[in-house]
Design a protein that fits this description.
Distance between the termini: 24 Å
Radius of gyration: 13 Å
Number of helices: 2
Number of domains: 1
Oligomer: single chain
Number of strands: 3
Shape: globular
Helix content: 10-25%
């Protein structure tokens, strides 16, 4: 697993896409009881994020966001 730095070109896009999920309603943090979305790392194909107590579902949520380079891997 790779861990991207905040200066990585994919960093902002990853958080914007996370916010766009219906579960998050435009919020990329979704703070609940002092908890928010956590970046867990990236594989070659996906960014892995986890929320330990999402305010909408009340449970641990995981989202895997496809990396830009995986979408063009066939080309």
């Amino acid at each position: 697993m790779e861990y991207l730095d905040v200066s990585h070109p994919e960093w902002d896009r990853m958080w914007e896409e996370l916010a766009s999920y219906p579960l998050n309603g435009g919020d990329h943090l979704c703070i609940e009881a002092g908890q928010c979305w956590e970046y867990m790392g990236s594989t070659q194909d996906h960014h892995h994020l986890r929320h330990p107590c999402h305010p909408v579902s009340g449970k641990t949520e995981y989202i895997y966001i496809e990396r830009a380079r995986s979408a063009v891997g066939w080309a």
